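Q: Here's a chain of 298 amino acids. Please give me its 3D structure as tokens.
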Amino acid sequence: MKEVAIIGPTGSGKSALAIEIAQETRAYILSLDSLAIYKKIDIVSAKPSKEELAKVRHFGIDEIDVDDYFSVERFFDIYKRAKEECQKVGRPLLIVGGSGFYLKALHEGLSPMPSFSERTHQKVDEILTDVKRAYEMLKKIDPTFASKITSKDRYRIKKALCLYFETKLPPTRYFALHPPKPLTKSKIYEIAVPRDILRKKITQRTEQMIQKGLVDEICELESEYGRAPAPMKAIGIKETLEYLDGKIKNLEELASKISLHTGHLAKRQQIFNKTQFPQRISKTANELKEEIKRELAD
């Protein structure tokens, strides 16, 4: 089964390019977008339209509720499901999106984890009634692992303690004995966009989001889920909440702030891609289209 990855900064046109290639090569698409994974977050995530989703089979879109916890492990499960579907029907897979962290994880892999017994879960849950005490316990068990996380990281503290009580090994030792295995070795293609053009694209996309009903969407999300879930702090959502609070005066200022912060994100994504994927093939969207089609056809 052929699979390739298409990366690039937010607003560079990854989704449009992927859908175009997928329609011509009969490929399925796995989204790497950290917001599109959530149901009901549609406009602010620039999620493909219902018509586009109907044309090409997508994975990684509308998978979980806004208040669900999302992790690399859950993303791996979605990737495995997408790969199995592609193998079953004999189609290639396009891995597409701006969240390079998830792609890097696919290329590096994760260590296999044991199953945790109900007894282990109960024991750790009791300890976690006091997160500070749980973190101090972890520091004594494995100071190296504890130094890599914060004292408020309840999820990783629980995972580390469960691992210790289940295997009798400190997490650092366990991971040394069970090194990660890559899940994919896909070629990585990056859309290269001049900075001035990217800024214009980001501005246009932000204005389109507001015209499509961004403010109404965020109002509905806040009404249903409040502001606590992690995605409610994403770019586009947090600024709109500030607008609803009266901290941003008008829609023009809202568009300006979202565009500015999105531009900063795009720059961070470009730096990440450059440093973490040195073997990537970086070309314009038109050049990549033909090259990727040839790669999937070979």
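Q: Can you summarize the key feature?
A: The chain has two domains: 3-109+182-297, 118-177.
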